[in-house]
Structure formats: structure tokens, C-alpha cells
Design goal:
alpha/beta, two-stranded antiparallel sheet, globular, binds uracil
Length: about 190
């Protein structure tokens, strides 16, 4: 695929705004045969600076939750719907999501995980192709076709939600536990 080498994207200029706002393209990290793939929305400032998804405060929440179920960050794959930081961290537009979609489709098809965990509303809606009430649907699994891949998608609240709403902590933790069980890995698997 144009702009893609292996699972990495390089030199993409499809989104005019994002070419301006990004410092770099932030590709997915983690094993190319991971049993669990976490999908976020788009890189923020920390990710844009360091070139890796979920390395800021949200990433710490994710890392801690993984550790609690016996998983390390290095055991899972972590990626985003959109690989370039939007200006002022606004939500990615429909067009940006569509532009970046083939890269995510190719990545998920190649990794072929047991579970795809969507972190927050944007990735949940992007993968499921419908409106999603993330708080009430967190922990639910839906099988979808995404590109050429058939995926079991586990809806999850965004890790940042636990930082401003303590009541989301339990929901987040139990969804991560479910991901570990689906993958047959970690202490719960
Ligand atoms: N939030 C996201 O959705 N993705 C990241 O990479 C970081 C924070």
C-alpha cells in the first residue's frame, strides 16, 4: 500500500491540516502478532513528541491496568485511528479518519489479534461503524468486519476518563481484565 512499509506509515500527506500540526507520524507499537490490540483516537502532544502512542498520562493509566492483569505494555500492540496529532488536540474529522483507515485496516488484518480494544468514543464508533455510548457499552464485545479483517471488538472507556471521573476506574479495570481473558494471556487468562 502506498505510504506503508510493513505496519508503519511514512511520508503520508493525505490530510493537509495534520501535515501542518504534526511533528511526526506516530505508528503503532508492540508485537506484530499480539493477541490484543488497543486502538486510541489520535496522538496527543506527548505522543507527537515521542513518536509512540499512549506515552502521556493516559498511557500511564493503561500501563498500570495492564500490569494489574499480569500484562506488560510490551505484550500488546497499541495504535491509533489517526496517526498524526490534530491541531490543539481536536477530534479527528471524518475525512481524516477515512484517510487513515486503510493503514489501520492493514495493521489489524496483519496482526490478527484475539481482541481489539477500542479506547473511547472515536475508536469505538470507527471500528463498530455506529454510534456508541461508551460508558454504558464498555465491556461489550461485537464481531465486525473491518477492511478484510474479522475482529472481536471490545468497547472500553478512554483511560483519560478515569482521571477526571473516578467512577470509571472500575469499568476500565474490568474491561482490561476481559481483554486479557479474551487473549488467553495475563493472570486472568
Ligand atoms: N489518547 C489517544 O487516543 N491516543 C494516544 O495515543 C494518546 C492519548
Amino acid at each position: 500500500m502506498e505510504h506503508m512499509e510493513g505496519l508503519d506509515v511514512a511520508g503520508c500527506t493525505k490530510c493537509a491540516d495534520l501535515v501542518e500540526s504534526r511533528s511526526r507520524i506516530v505508528n503503532g507499537v508492540g508485537p506484530e502478532d499480539a493477541e490484543v490490540v488497543f486502538v486510541g483516537e489520535a496522538p496527543g502532544a506527548n505522543e507527537d513528541e515521542q513518536g509512540e502512542p499512549f506515552v502521556g498520562r493516559s498511557g500511564t493509566v493503561l500501563d498500570d491496568a495492564l500490569r494489574d492483569v499480569g500484562l506488560a505494555r510490551a505484550d500488546v500492540r497499541i495504535t491509533n485511528c489517526v496517526r498524526c496529532r490534530p491541531p490543539e488536540n481536536r477530534d479527528p474529522t471524518k475525512e481524516e479518519l477515512a484517510n487513515c483507515r486503510p493503514y489501520l485496516e492493514a495493521e489489524l488484518e496483519a496482526v490478527d489479534p484475539e481482541a481489539v480494544v477500542t479506547l473511547g468514543k472515536v475508536p469505538s464508533q470507527h471500528l463498530l461503524g455506529r454510534d456508541v455510548a461508551v460508558t454504558s457499552e464498555a465491556g461489550s464485545v461485537e464481531t465486525v468486519t473491518f477492511g478484510d479483517a474479522k475482529l472481536d471488538v471490545l468497547v472500553c472507556v478512554h483511560p483519560a476518563a478515569t482521571l477526571y471521573d473516578r467512577s470509571q476506574e472500575e469499568t476500565f479495570a474490568s474491561t482490561i481484565e476481559k481483554a486479557a481473558t479474551m487473549a488467553g494471556t495475563g493472570e486472568s487468562g
